[in-house]
Specification:
Layout: E1 9-14, H1 19-31, E2 35-40, H2 49-61, E3 68-72, H3 76-82, E4 90-92, H4 96-106, E5 110-114, H5 120-131, H6 139-152, E6 158-159, E7 165-166
Parallel strand pairs: 1-2, 1-3, 3-5, 4-5
Antiparallel strand pairs: 6-7
Helix pairs in contact: 1-5, 2-3, 4-5
C-alpha cells in the first residue's frame, strides 16, 4: 500500500450483535494508527441492521470516507443492506484471503463480518488485510467494476462474443 495508515481514515459500524466486536476492532485499528470513526450503534440494545448499514454507507457515498467496516451477528444481513446503496461494494469476508481479493479484484469499499461467527483475532486479521490492500489497476477488473455500476443504474448489457453489448 503506497499510503500510510496514519493518513487513512475508516468508518466502522454495527448492529447490536456486533457492538462489542466493533469496539474491540476500533481499538485495534486505532492502535495501528488508523483514524477510526464509529457510525453506531452505541449500545448492545436491539437495533435494526439496515439502519446501521445506511448510516455508514451514506458517509462513504458522500466521499467523506473511502472505506468502511460493518459487523452484525453473521455479517449476512448487514452486507445485504449495504449493497442496496449505489456505489457500495460490500464484501462479506470470513478469511483474510477473501478480504484481500475483494479489495484487489472488486475494489470493495465496505468489509462485512460476522461477530458471532468469527473470533476477535480473526476479525482483526481480516480487517488488517482488507485495509492494507489496494484495488488492482487492471482493465479486466475496471471493466467488471463498470458492469456492477451499470447493474445499479439498470443500464447493464451482456457483452456478446465480439465484446459488443447484446440488449439489456
Amino acid at each position: 500500500m503506497d499510503k500510510t495508515k496514519k493518513n487513512l481514515k475508516v468508518i466502522i459500524g454495527s448492529d447490536h450483535a456486533g457492538f462489542e466486536a466493533k469496539a474491540a476492532l476500533a481499538a485495534h485499528l486505532a492502535g495501528q494508527g488508523w483514524k477510526v470513526t464509529d457510525s453506531g450503534t452505541y449500545s448492545s440494545a436491539s437495533c435494526d441492521y439496515p439502519a446501521e448499514a445506511h448510516k455508514l454507507c451514506v458517509r462513504i457515498q458522500s466521499g467523506e470516507f473511502a472505506l468502511g467496516i460493518l459487523l452484525c451477528g453473521t455479517g449476512v444481513g448487514i452486507s445485504i443492506a449495504a449493497n442496496k446503496h449505489a456505489g457500495i461494494r460490500a464484501a462479506l469476508c470470513s478469511d483474510p484471503v477473501t478480504a484481500e481479493l475483494a479489495r484487489q479484484h472488486n475494489d470493495s469499499n465496505v468489509l462485512c463480518m460476522g461477530a458471532r461467527i468469527l473470533p476477535e483475532e480473526k476479525l482483526f486479521e481480516i480487517a488488517d488485510r482488507f485495509l492494507s490492500t489496494d484495488a488492482l489497476d487492471e482493465e479486466r477488473h475496471r471493466r467488471r467494476q463498470r458492469m456492477l455500476t451499470d447493474l445499479e443504474n439498470s443500464s447493464f448489457a451482456v457483452p456478446g462474443p465480439s465484446g459488443a453489448a447484446e440488449g439489456k
